């Protein structure tokens, strides 16, 4: 086995679970594995272009995964539009889950859904993927300073969206963000 193959194999073992988790938060679990496989195929094909600094490899992989997901979603949207034109029937009605104990999670989901896709991604990269501002900026292709501004604005929009549905909450009650472990902490640089 050559040095490149050994190095790539080590990168794969180290980062594959992270790329699958990153993708699973943006697609379904089966597609997440396909996205991860495609990401590492791109990484193998572009192996000489991988960052030299080991700390920059995961953000580079996330960036590839993000672009792969975007391509897949564009294809999905095209297929949906075609299916809608071919079907004469009305769309199925989706009922919401009314199980107890998920009100806070549903409120956060709704608040996140009310944000723009860019705000959602910004918050997810930092809060869910655990990236610092610099690494997240690499993923979305902007400067760390620009990303820090995006993050600040996205956090304020999320707080505003959450406050809209919690006007009747009693003081001292835990926020839905803290209940779900999604508190927005200070940006890491």
Automatic annotation (TrEMBL):
Question: Where in this chain does the record put each RNA polymerase sigma factor 70 region 4 type domain?
Answer: 108-158
Residues of the region (Disordered) are: 164-189
Q: Name one GO molecular function term.
A: DNA binding
The UniProt entry, under Gene3D superfamilies, shows:
1.10.1740.10, Winged helix-like DNA-binding domain superfamily/Winged helix DNA-binding domain
Q: Which family does it belong to?
A: Belongs to the sigma-70 factor family. ECF subfamily.
* PANTHER family registered for this protein in UniProt: RNA POLYMERASE ECF-TYPE SIGMA FACTO, RNA POLYMERASE SIGMA FACTOR RFAY-RELATED
**The protein, known as:** Sigma-70 family RNA polymerase sigma factor
Organism annotation: Actinomadura syzygii
């Amino acid at each position: 086995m050559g040095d490149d193959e050994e190095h790539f194999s080590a990168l794969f073992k180290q980062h594959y679970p992270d790329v699958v988790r990153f993708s699973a938060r943006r697609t379904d679990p089966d597609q997440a594995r396909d996205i991860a496989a495609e990401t590492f195929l791109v990484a193998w094909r572009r192996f000489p272009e991988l960052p030299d600094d080991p700390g920059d490899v995961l953000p580079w992989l996330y960036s590839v995964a993000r672009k792969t997901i975007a391509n897949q979603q564009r294809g999905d949207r095209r297929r949906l539009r075609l299916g809608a034109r071919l079907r004469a029937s009305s769309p199925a009605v989706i009922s919401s889950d009314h199980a107890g104990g998920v009100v806070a999670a549903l409120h956060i989901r709704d608040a996140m859904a009310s944000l723009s896709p860019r705000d959602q991604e910004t918050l997810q990269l930092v809060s869910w993927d655990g990236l610092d501002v610099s690494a997240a900026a690499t993923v979305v292709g902007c400067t760390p300073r620009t990303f820090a501004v995006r993050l600040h604005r996205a956090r304020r929009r999320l707080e505003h969206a959450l406050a809209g549905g919690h006007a009747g909450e009693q003081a001292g009650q835990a926020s839905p963000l803290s209940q779900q472990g999604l508190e927005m902490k200070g940006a890491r640089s």
